[in-house]
Specification:
The chain has about 200 residues and is α+β, with helices and mostly antiparallel strands. It is built from three helices and seven strands. The chain starts with 8 loop residues before the first helix and ends with a strand.
């Protein structure tokens, strides 16, 4: 059978110390090793319960339909692979067709080339009117749009309209498509008034 192979000096020294230790010491050391192995396994599972880390792009602020994405609008974040939605974006390009709240993962379903109208449901339209005669409005506010005549009488021409954007020179409203022409005409004539509704 031949002589036993010679162990490396370091391993031989460890072996001598192991067998020189008391049974209680060897038992305690073995338990510590087992606990360390189990803890390492549990830690690995806890660190990635939903798959490997994956980098995605999330909104840095609340983004509205019609806005063109810029690099500063999105930042990179690492999330578990199984929590990444289909179509997650890899670059900040395109025009939003749907609202993208701050912290949400940007996907190709948020994009579209139809400007403000792209994110509206069927039967709705986006209308821009001059802002100079309108009060300060906040995007997301619900309003009724009134056409005023020269005698001060008013007629509701846009019910349950929504402010899509309040820019320096114009305000965009999401309105019923059948009311869009009348609202645009009243806005251009400077005869449009706004009633802000409760949320």
């Amino acid at each position: 059978m031949g002589p036993l192979p010679t162990l490396p000096r370091a391993l031989d020294a460890v072996s001598e110390r192991w067998w020189a230790a008391t049974p209680r010491t060897r038992l305690l050391f073995g338990l510590l090793v087992a606990v360390a192995v189990v803890a390492a396994g549990v830690g690995h599972l806890a660190a990635a319960p939903y798959g490997h880390p994956t980098t995605v792009l999330v909104a840095t602020r609340d983004l509205l339909p019609g806005e063109r994405l810029h690099a500063q609008d999105l930042r990179r974040r690492t999330v578990p692979e199984e929590l990444v939605p289909d179509g997650a974006l890899t670059s900040a390009e395109g025009v939003l067709a749907a609202a993208l709240p701050a912290g949400a993962i940007a996907t190709d379903r948020h994009l579209g080339e139809g400007g403000w109208a792209a994110g509206l449901p069927e039967g709705r339209a986006a209308v821009a009117v001059p802002s100079e005669r309108l009060p300060a409005l906040t995007p997301g506010s619900r309003v009724e749009l009134i056409a005023a005549d020269h005698e001060g009488r008013g007629e509701v021409i846009g019910r349950d309209a929504v402010v899509l954007a309040a820019e320096v020179e114009e305000v965009w409203f999401g309105v019923d498509a059948t009311d869009a022409v009348a609202i645009s005409a009243a806005g251009q004539a400077g005869a449009l008034a706004v009633i802000v509704l409760p949320p």
